[in-house]
Amino acid sequence: MVNNLRDQLIRDEGDVPYAYQDSLGYWTIGVGFLIDRRKGGRLPDAVRDFWLDYEITEKRKELERRIPWITTLDQARQDCLLNMTFNLGVEGLLSFKNTLSLVQSGQYEKASVEMLKSRWATQVGNRAKRLSEQMRTGKYV
């Protein structure tokens, strides 16, 4: 039953949780949100800010669930691992077993070296160098 505009829009536009091409071939997401720049579409700043904050919160919860000791780290080192999670996913970060073991035991210098030995480091370049330094020093870079 349609009770309001919101219900009508979901019924008429659909509600698709991923990017798709509409009937005219323009990239769209959600309930008819045009994101195709060819037609002036984009995600508004407030939506991007909300989405980023949401993802940070969700990924932080997942890391705290999977590696509870992360909460014993200073904020910069926690955020270093969280930044890596954005790039690698939780499972990808957890595959850094040696690095995580070193971090957990407070061997940040060695952990930072291990980070740079990874295939990930060759793929992301300067990001890995910055995060390695952040892990080593406990300061945002």
List the defining traits of the structure above.
single chain, about 140 residues, mainly alpha, Lysozyme, 2 domains, three-stranded antiparallel beta sheet, 7 helices
Structural notes for this entry:
With 141 residues, this protein is mainly alpha-helical. It is 61% helix and 9% strand. It is built from seven helices and three strands. Strands 1-2-3 form a three-stranded antiparallel β-sheet, with no helix packed on it. The mean pLDDT is 96.
| Portion of residues within helices | 55-70%
Structural class: mainly alpha
Number of strands: 3
Largest sheet: 3 strands, antiparallel
Q: What is the residue-averaged pLDDT?
A: 96
Order of the strands making up the biggest sheet: 1-2-3
Series of secondary-structure elements, N-terminal to C-terminal: HEEEHHHHHH
Number of domains: 2
> What's the end-to-end separation, in Å?
53 Å
The proportion of residues in beta strands is 5-15%
Shape: elongated
Gross CATH architecture of the largest domain:
Orthogonal Bundle
CATH class category of the largest domain: Mainly Alpha
**Do you know the CATH topology of the largest domain?**
Lysozyme
Q: Which blocks of ≥5 consecutive residues have pLDDT under 50? A: none
Radius of gyration computed on alpha carbons: 20 Å
Task: Please give the count of helices.
Answer: 7
